[in-house]
Amino acid sequence: MSAIAIITARGGSKRIPGKNKKEFLGKPILCYSIEAALSSGLFEEVMVSTDDEEIAQIARQAGAHVPFMRSKDTADDFATTDDVLMEVLAEYEKRGQVFEYMACIYPTAPFVTAKKLQDALRILQEEKGSGVMPVVKYSFPPQRGMAVREGRLEYCYPENAMKRSQDLEKIYHDCGQFYIYKVDEYRACKGELPDGYVPIVVPETQVQDIDNLSDWKLAEMKYKMMMEGC
Fold it and tell me: Which of 60, 74, 164, 208 is deepest in the core (most CB within 10 A)?
């Protein structure tokens, strides 16, 4: 089995400047993703795709490879994660390296651990799927959500207004931490997997979008809780 971990860490960040290299509890947040990938023992190659030389230097010091810099086409605000992954796979193929499995790991995902990556690959193989996605359950049922319309609250789905939470289907959303794919199947559909993703359910205490400094502080608090086994 051959596998690559691709950590997508471009230099631009408007909401939190320098987000991918900002210190998170004493070290650049990018390092957490690198360390999880390396310590998992799963990957023949752990690389960082970036257009920023400072990020590249941090990545190398943490033990990751940066064999080439990201192109201008995949470093702007309009490039997608899929564009980046396809570029990386194509560049490695030019160098004579192909992989059976690929993990895409985000650079601001300190909750990713070696065990989560190991579990994800094991589940992918056992379930004979094409991809695995960590998800988290919504804490409140979206089916009972409300919208403000003409200054008044209205149920979006009035038929569910009086239903008990336990009677409604559980709904999940992407954790925004990592994905694992079978490379051939990913490249054939560029992430639009025809057979869907196999889920890994992650507790809410180990998930945090980091879009502003308040989110950053919450993520640090949750990370400490995770490390303390809370």
Answer: 208
Closest Cα partner for 5 from 123, 114, 101?
Answer: 101
- For 156-213, the pLDDT digits (tens) are 999 999 999 999 999 999 999 999 999 999 999 988 899 999 999 999 999 999 999 9
- Measure the CA–CA gap between 85 and 189, rounded to whole angstroms: 12
For residue 58, the SS3 value is helix
**Nearest-5° Cα angle at 219, 69 to 40:** 55
Which residue in this structure is represented by tokens 């994800």? 120
Q: b/e string for 83-96 if b means 16 or more Cβ within 10 A?
A: bbbbbbbebbeeee
Task: Yes or no: say if 23 and 219 are a contact pair by the CB < 8 Å rule.
Answer: no
pLDDT in tens, 33-44: 999 999 999 999
Helix ranges (H only) for the chain are 30-40, 53-61, 81-94, 114-127, 183-189, 213-227
Residues 88, 8 contacting (CB under 8 angstroms): no
Q: What does the block give as tokens for 67?
A: 């064999």
In sequence order, the β-bridge partners of residue 136 are 173
Q: In the chain, pLDDT over 70 holds for what percent of residues?
A: 100
Cβ within 8 Å of residue 9, ≥6 positions away: 20, 30, 48, 49, 50, 52, 55, 59, 107
Determine the Cα–Cα distance for residues 62 and 64; give it in Å rounded to an integer.
6
End-to-end CA distance of the chain, in Å? Answer: 35
Report the alpha-carbon angle 74-206-226, nearest 5. 125
**For residue 54, what are its two tokens?**
């400072």
